Amino acid sequence: MRPINSVIQEVRSEAPLIRTFRLDRNLDPTPGQYVMVWIRGVDEIPMSFSGPDTITVQSVGEASAALFALGAGRTVGLRGPLGNGFVLRGKRVLLIGGGVGTAPLAFLGEQAKGAGYEVASLLGFRSRDDLIFQDRFEALGETIITTDDGSLGIQGRVASGLKELNLYDYDQIYLCGPEMMMWDIISRTREHAQKTQACINRYFKCAAGICGSCCLDPDGLRVCVEGPVIMADRLAESEFGRYRRGPTGSKGPCRG
Amino acid sequence: MPSLSIHAGGLQLNNPILLAAGILGTTGASLCRAARAGAGGVVTKSVGSLPREGHPGPTIVHVDGGLLNAMGLPNPSYKDFQDEIDKARESKVPVIASIFGSFAAEFAQIARSLKADAFELNLSCPHAEKYGSELGRYPDLVESVTGAVKAASNVPVWVKLTPNTADIVELGLAAQRGGADAIVAINTLKAMAIDIETGYPILGNRFGGLSGPAIKPVAVRCVYELAGRLEIPVIGVGGVSTWEDAVEMIMAGASAVQVGTALLRGYGVFEEITTGLSRYLERKSMTLEDLCGLAGKEKLQ
Question: What CATH class has B6-48+75-193+212-300?
Answer without folding.
Answer: alpha beta
